[in-house]
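Translate structure to sequence.
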């Protein structure tokens, strides 16, 4: 019972730290000291340490010998590599989901897209002005999209790569990403291809969806504070 309680505390602390990193509360290069974080999240330094250790394998936190934990600085070349891996991983996951997914999976996906379509996109959330509800809904949609593959390791990798990409988007100057892209239409086209069981088209649309985001970031560049000292 005690172990379960600690695991629950770690999970909830990870969720809080992740949210704060992805909404810009913790900046790239910023140290994540155990004692202040324990006070901030009202838990123990042991729970914070374990949370950060788990997060250090998922791109949002780095653990440097003798320097402790911090949010990583960002680079555009690293983003391009992350996106390549993300596209390959989710191409496989989506192909398998279309092959293995049943009507319940389809219905769940359509419901997630419907909720996202009717969720206010702008409002209190991250520093780009995207609402927290919309950000959560978008993440849920992409999780469900590949969930029928039934491979937990693949789902975990996709989740981590999505968070990493979100961090880059947050610290870029790509305001057009939040204001002018027709994300609802892009999602609708992917869902239609899935329902038609057209794996080739669905994979192509998903890859174009991700590449479009990365191209905007590459074009806009990263804020100097995210790149770090020269």
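Result:
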């Amino acid at each position: 019972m005690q172990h379960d309680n600690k695991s629950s505390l770690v999970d909830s602390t990870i969720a809080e730290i992740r949210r704060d990193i992805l909404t810009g509360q913790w900046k790239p290069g910023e140290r994540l000291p155990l004692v202040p974080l324990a006070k901030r999240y009202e838990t123990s330094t042991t729970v914070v340490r374990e949370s950060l250790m788990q997060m250090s394998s998922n791109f949002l936190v780095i653990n440097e010998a003798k320097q402790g934990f911090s949010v990583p600085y960002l680079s555009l070349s690293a983003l391009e590599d992350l996106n390549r891996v993300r596209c390959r991983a989710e191409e496989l996951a989506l192909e398998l989901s279309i092959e293995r997914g049943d009507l319940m999976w389809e219905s769940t996906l359509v419901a997630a897209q419907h909720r996202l379509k009717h969720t206010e996109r702008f409002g209190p959330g991250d520093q780009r002005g995207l609402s927290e509800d919309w950000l959560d809904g978008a993440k849920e949609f992409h999780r469900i999209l590949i969930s029928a593959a039934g491979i937990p390791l693949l789902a975990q990798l996709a989740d981590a790569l999505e968070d990493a990409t979100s961090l880059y988007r947050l610290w870029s100057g790509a305001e057009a990403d939040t204001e002018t892209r027709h994300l609802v239409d892009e999602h609708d086209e992917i869902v239609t291809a899935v329902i038609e069981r057209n794996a080739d088209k669905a994979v192509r649309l998903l890859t174009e969806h991700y590449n479009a985001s990365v191209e905007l970031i590459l074009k806009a560049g990263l804020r100097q504070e995210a790149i770090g000292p020269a």
